[in-house]
Specification:
The complex is a heterodimer of chains A (276) and B (282).
Chain A: H1 2-49, H2 53-56, H3 59-67, H4 77-109, H5 117-133, H6 136-147, H7 151-175, H8 180-187, H9 192-223, H10 234-243, H11 247-275
Helix pairs in contact in A: 4-5, 4-7, 4-9, 4-11, 5-7, 6-7, 7-9, 8-9, 9-11, 10-11
Chain B: H1 2-15, H2 24-47, H3 53-56, H4 58-70, H5 75-78, H6 81-111, H7 123-136, H8 139-150, H9 154-178, H10 182-190, H11 195-229, H12 238-246, H13 250-281
Helix pairs in contact in B: 6-9, 6-11, 7-9, 8-9, 9-11, 10-11, 11-13, 12-13
Classes of the chains: A mainly alpha (276), B mainly alpha (282).
Chain lengths: 276, 282
């Protein structure tokens, strides 16, 4: 009886599967045709119509103008040390500031620990979204307007920009925690804050540190361009080399940025190994 | 009396060493690490010449600037047809950049995954280096480089986004390929398949869903980057932003920023929905 039922069930299922497969085939082909049409339309608008083909010239000229960048300006290297250290420090302090700002954002934005859900949860989510959706260049422009030129607006731009990612990942980690330790700590008579400190924090700390290190790596490359809008560091040197048409110098600055990023990646690799 | 003393003495001798989370060498190492972190922070504040006194009045000044200069957003300015066209261009640029980047990602991810790379000694390190340098150079720098090589226009923006997306998605894809189950790969290899066949029949079915997720995420990130690559002349709405920032038309800047915020929110909701659907397909 049972196997009979199973058989009829599978028989029906086979038909269903065939029908579904045919339907899927049609919908897939329509989907791909729409995508191809969009691609062709976008290529037509962006690449064919909007490009100044005469200015670009032939392929040889394009390669020649790209070839100007090949080469290293060795005389620039001694001048790069100070901006490189500055960039590195801006990224460190910016990440630190981001971590500090992200404490309330995470607290408000994690569904299971938010103090008063109808008000604080949207506030936390809004902080995360606004920080992630505005580009670091725009943040830097805003903070340069408020704080004046120098490293300080860069630090603030990086800090505010990195809140979104750190807070979102930490809030997700907090929403996934085990409830046992919370109950145990609460049973000993701890208040809300103590529960936060002794039951929730130890469970998420390894994940959060991983996220912070990842964001720090990204922040190094972000802080390397903030100089473009007046926030110090390697970006300023890059901009100056570009404006003086010293193409070899541009390549040198890019190589310097690569060196700091590799350094940051090595540091974060080892500290991740140590901590987790 | 004597017996009580005898009984309590070992307890006493234990209890006057206080319990610590970290034992002898670790506690000092942790203390030194914290101390050096603090010294580093103090040193960098000193080195970067940060005027800490400016921080005190910052909140008040920020509120003042926001309410006086940026507050009533000039909505009429962004209701313009030209501006709508630039939004469409931005979306197209992000779409094409992400697409080309993803096309470039497939070989890059393949070559830079340690378990599937054709040659661990030659191809793997080169592919890793290419992915890393694409990712390490910021999209703005790519945009400036391409503008200086190819001239103004969206083509430069598309290429900048392509390089950025290739680096971004390449790493994610390589990580995904490194996490696959090697048994099907082995089985297909044992049946005499060549490199491409192993890739198509052994690896691709396993990473299909993850790759779709990566593609959606990449599009999302590319759109956010596309809103500002125009800042240095690579097309899209970034150019409007730059022009108004330079002309100190702050109310227009606010409205442009608001429009960026709304668009990013829409794209984020769309990508969350799409990713949900893909996850359900799994």
């Amino acid at each position: 009886m049972k196997s009979d039922q199973l058989l009829t069930k599978t028989a029906i299922n086979v038909d269903d599967i065939l029908v579904k497969r045919n339907r899927d085939k049609v919908s897939h082909s329509i989907f791909f045709m729409v995508i191809m049409a969009l691609v062709l339309w976008s290529v037509n608008v962006t690449i064919i119509e909007d490009t100044d083909w005469e200015r670009m010239g032939s392929l040889g000229e394009v390669l020649a103008s790209a070839g100007r960048f090949i080469g290293v300006d060795f005389s620039l290297i001694p001048n790069l040390l100070e901006p490189a250290i500055e960039t590195f420090m801006i990224s460190c302090l910016g990440t630190l500031l981001g971590v500090i700002i992200c404490i309330p954002a995470t607290w408000f934005g994690a569904l299971n620990i938010t103090p008063f859900k109808p008000i604080t949860y949207p506030i936390g989510r809004f902080m995360m979204t606004i920080s992630r959706s505005i580009h670091e260049i725009v943040w830097a422009l805003f903070f340069v307007a408020v704080l004046g030129l120098g490293a300080l607006p860069g630090i603030f731009a990086i800090g505010v920009r990195s809140v979104g990612f750190i807070a979102k990942m930490s809030a997700e980690a907090i929403e996934d925690i085990k409830l046992g330790p919370i109950e145990a700590i609460r049973a000993t008579g701890a208040n809300r804050f103590q529960v936060l400190l002794y039951a929730i924090l130890p469970q998420v700390i390894p994940q959060v540190i991983g996220v912070i290190l990842f964001e720090w790596e990204i922040n190094i490359r972000r802080s390397a361009i903030l100089g473009l809008v007046g926030a110090g560091g390697l970006g300023l040197v890059f901009f100056r080399q570009m404006n003086t048409y010293n193409y070899h110098g541009v390549t040198t600055v890019i190589l310097a940025i690569l060196v700091i990023i590799i350094f940051g990646e090595i540091v974060s690799h080892f500290s991740r190994k140590r901590m987790i | 009396m004597d017996s009580i003393n005898k009984r309590t003495s070992p307890i006493n001798s234990i209890s006057h060493t206080k319990w610590k989370r970290l034992k002898y060498p670790d506690s000092y190492i942790s203390y030194c690490l914290w101390l050096s972190a603090l010294v580093f922070i103090a040193f960098s504040i000193e080195y970067l010449n940060i005027p800490l006194n400016r921080l005190l009045g910052m909140m008040g000044r920020m509120g003042e600037i926001l309410t006086n200069r940026y507050y009533p957003p000039d909505i009429e300015y962004i209701m313009d047809l030209d501006y709508a066209k630039s939004i469409l261009e931005t979306i197209q640029m992000a779409y094409l950049g992400a697409l080309f980047g993803l096309v470039a990602t497939v070989p890059l991810g393949w070559f830079s995954s340690f378990n599937m790379t054709p040659s661990r000694r030659y191809v793997y390190p080169i592919a890793r280096l290419v992915t890393m340098s694409c990712r390490a150079v910021h999209e703005m720098i790519w945009a400036i480089l391409f503008v200086s090589i190819l001239g103004f226009g969206m083509f430069s923006g598309v290429l900048a986004l392509t390089f950025f997306c290739a680096g971004f998605a390449g790493k994610l894809l390589a990580d995904e390929i490194e996490a696959i189950d090697m048994n099907p790969v082995e089985a297909i290899r044992a049946s005499g398949a060549n490199l491409f066949q192993v890739m198509i029949y052994g690896v691709f079915p396993q990473i299909r869903v993850a790759f779709t997720g990566i593609a959606i995420y990449t599009w999302d990130v590319a759109f956010r980057a596309a809103t500002v690559v125009g800042f240095f002349g690579a097309g899209g709405m970034g150019w409007y932003l730059k022009r108004n920032v330079l002309q100190i038309e702050t109310e227009r800047v606010t409205s442009i920023l608001l429009s960026i915020l709304v668009l990013v929110l829409i794209s984020e909701i769309l990508s969350a929905l799409a990713r949900d659907r893909v996850m359900r397909m799994k």
